[in-house]
Amino acid sequence: MKRILLCALVLLVAAGVLVVKLQNRGDEKTETTAPQSETGQSVLSPENEIRAVWVNYNELSMKAQNGGTKAQFTEKAKKITTDIASAGLNTVIVHVRPFCDAFYPSELFPWTSYLTGTQGKAVDYDPLQIFIDCAKVCNLSVQAWINPYRVLLSRDESKLAENNPARKFLDAGKSENLLLTETGIYLNPASSEAQALIIDGVREIVKNYDVDAVHMDDYFYPTTDPAVDSASYAAYQKAGGKLSLSDWRRENVSVFVSGLYAAIKAIKPEVQLVISPGGNIDHNYNNLYADVARWAREPGFCDVLMPQLYYGFLNEKLPFEDTAREWASLVTAPNVELCFGLAFYKSGKADQYAGSGKQEWIEHSDIIARQVAFCRTLSPYNGFALYTYSSIFSGNLASQPQKEWENLKPLLTK
């Protein structure tokens, strides 16, 4: 009898130990497995998930009103920011410097032509300050969006204001600070003077305005043509430079990006640098000379990478899920967050570059909702941005974009 009781006791103890071990294993699994969602429920809290919308220069334009008044621009800014906040989004990416010009009074750049129709012609109000004030009332985070190198999408120099830095370079015979291509004029990424100009322009924004981030998009080198910067490259080689043309161009961009990052942090460490490159990692590296993998891997380049994943699930060359996973696998530096730019503007339209997936955005009206749900399953993941404001909030949306928006809205309540 004692032997039976002893065996029973041993069995009970063993069972207890096994239960504890299983519980511990379960606890260990919980601690080491990244949280994921299969329902579109964000693993981030709504206030920590970036839910952004781009507002571009055309959407800010006051050309139809010949510049308009402070009251008219304020009305526009209030509508835009109220629309965004009311939809459950929390961040606005506002275009402040699209073409070596400014939507604010600048000591370095001329007033943008998208206010009055004429570059350099002033308005008697500060559009950026008004927009920021309206955004803050709506509790929106503000990212100041610049195109660092782009000057003009033509070679018509007469369109440049007299105080445009590019015009000043041309008038002073400093063409080495510019890249003159068949399709336009750009600041030369190899020029230290051009780099300093762009960085000083960002300093001006960060010092004078209460922005949460500086946002830079995918305009880096405008061409792969070796002739466009042959004089700059020859000067580099003459000084003893050994890098190939492609590596030299990539280094020029990376040096600028790291310098921009350092300049922002020296003024306001809390202000982020967000870079939104194109979604094709190889194209960035080989055609635009943007080494996004390095910026993700090494500290000191950016706080947020927001690739423009403007592809459908059925895109023949760059299917959305595979491309998003590729980006998620890049981000290794602990300070670099990953967000995804999504192409709401494609809803209801044929995607000319998607190959066999050309009709996807016409045949389906839940693509953005499924993309947000999928992105939320990835680690790392910090949010998404929608391009662009007018494609979502236009008062006369076509039926397909309207359905797309209705399918997305439930995910903005989670």
**What's the number of domains?**
1
* Relative strand content: 5-15%
Elements, N to C (H/E): HEHHEHHEEHEEHEHHEHHEHEHHEHH
Mean pLDDT: 90
The strand order across the widest sheet is: 1-2-3-7-8-9-10-11
* Poorly predicted ranges: 1-39
Span from first to last CA? 61 Å
Which key terms come to mind for this protein?
three-stranded antiparallel β-sheet; 12% strand; single chain; alpha/beta; 414 residues; TIM Barrel; eight-stranded parallel beta barrel; disordered N terminus; 11 strands
Structure description:
It is globular and about 60 Å long. The strands form 2 sheets. The protein has an 8-stranded parallel barrel with strand order 1-2-3-7-8-9-10-11, surrounded by 6 helices. A 3-stranded antiparallel beta sheet has the order 4-6-5, covered by helices on one side. Helices cover 43% and strands 12% of the residues. It has one domain: Glycosidases (TIM Barrel, Alpha-Beta Barrel). A hairpin with a 4-residue loop joins strand 5 and strand 6. It is α/β, with parallel strands linked by helices. It has helices at 2-32, 57-60, 70-86, 113-116, 127-137, 165-171, 192-208, 230-238, 245-267, 281-288, 292-297, 320-330, 360-363, 367-375, 389-393, 399-408; strands at 50-55, 91-97, 141-146, 150-152, 178-180, 185-187, 213-216, 272-275, 304-305, 337-342, 383-386. The model is unreliable at 1-39 (pLDDT under 50).
